[in-house]
Amino acid sequence: MKRLLLIVALLSPVIVLAQKTMPKTFDLVVGAYTKGSSKGIAVYRFYAETGRVAYLSQIDGVSNPSYLCISSNNKFVYAVNENDEGEVSAFSFEPKTGALKFINKVSTLGGAPCYVSIDKAQKSLFVANYSGGNIAVLPLNEDGSIAPAVQTIRDPGHGPNAARQEKAHVHTAVLSPDEKYVFYTDLGTDKINVTKYKAKKDNPLTPAKPAFYSIAPGGGPRHIDFSADKKHLYLIQEMGSAVTVFDYDNGKLTQKQTVTLLPDGFTGSTGAADIHVSPDGRFLYASNRGDANDITVFSINQENGELTFIDRKPSGGKSPRNFVIDPTGSFLLVANQNSDNVFVYRIDKNTGKLMQAVSRLDIGSPVCLKFAPAQ
Question: How much is the pTM?
């Protein structure tokens, strides 16, 4: 009996650690356009064992919080205000209750900000201004508030599509896995720009060598994600409705494969949007809007990072602008902007395919989904 108790005592810390590392409940923070029924940012409790979603709280009066990021300590939420004047707002966040409290708001020095990211040290925010055509860097204070922008970078180029690429349109700003670089895509100039990052008062971003990589003219680069082994970068082309695979090594990219998101013979309108690698690194998912309204699933070759088509699943609504995979890798949640809903699909972890939806959340114009541990 004493020996059994000793074994249990030795194993208990391991069990507690595992539970702390991968919780079973999360906070789901939802950003939305407020031109319709949505009034701001909503927070829900997500149960990773069942895929069930329960309402927690909402903060009203936030104008068009179309994209969000959450600080690494889960104490702060930052949301762009996607308007012509261009602003970004800071909120304190209480994971236990999901409560948000406004801290401050500052200019992004560019119109229609559509993406915001944060470094793990919580020193800087990086904002992509779509109509402003520039990336902005904004320092963060210890209390979570945002300081005025200290740097903006704008590409004066353009692309071949006169209607969509008349000037620069920066769409995303993503840190490299080691956070030594910031990559920002430019839909208007068909480029992935690469900058070195160092948190400091002046010019935290400096051009890498090379400073950019071009894709096929008219492709319209949008979002990116890295492979689990950090050896590959995946780019979704909004206008080209394709995914391009790059080898990645210390800030440098080598293009190696491009695969379409469209079935043979497809002739409708499209608008590829979001892209994510599964937590186990085995599968890649990409969303497409327009007349497609689906999620495409690819397997990832673990040796070379290349993609193989697996399946295509309707998103459950119209315009799947953004989606997220829960940290356990069990569910994919897709935000359908133009049908005012979020569908929760179970993932078959063996095949990567999306199974039948297990729950649905009705919310006005959802466009961004982010997870945080529920403490």
Answer: 0.93
